[in-house]
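Lecture notes, continued. The same structure-token format from the folding unit now serves as the input rather than the output. Read the line below as a description of shape only.
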């Protein structure tokens, strides 16, 4: 089982074991962090963004790439709604219920990556930009 270490906004670290293939946004919630997912985990809002300290996946969905490019965030953060837990990771969520003052984190994300995931090596997207 992959281990996920989440540093919350109070600099506290929580490590949990998560099921192989679980959506990262749901795994962060499993770690007790109220990460944002205002669009319901469909790669539309970027409130589930995370900064990786270790274990950033080498693949990316087209939806994640396109949304991060649109928002000027490509290469800076990743969208936890578009990532599956396949190995150990350490990260920091950037938008939480507490940091943003929301009344809720958003609609519950589906266990499956939405929209249907087209996964590519990150380098493939870099070649498209050249």
């Amino acid at each position: 089982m992959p281990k996920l270490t989440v540093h919350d906004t109070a600099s506290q670290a929580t490590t949990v074991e998560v099921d192989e293939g679980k959506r990262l946004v749901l795994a962060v919630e499993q770690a007790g962090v109220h990460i944002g997912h205002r669009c319901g985990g469909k790669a539309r809002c970027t409130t589930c963004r995370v900064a990786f300290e270790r274990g950033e996946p080498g693949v990316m969905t087209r939806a994640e790439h396109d949304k991060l490019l649109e928002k000027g965030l490509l290469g800076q953060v990743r969208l936890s709604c578009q990532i599956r837990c396949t190995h150990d990771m350490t990260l920091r969520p950037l938008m939480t219920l507490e940091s943003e003052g929301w009344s809720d984190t958003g609609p519950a994300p589906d266990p499956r990556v939405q929209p249907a995931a087209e996964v590519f090596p990150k380098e493939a997207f870099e070649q498209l930009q050249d």
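Point for the exam: Helices lie at 24-30, 62-71, 97-100, 122-129.
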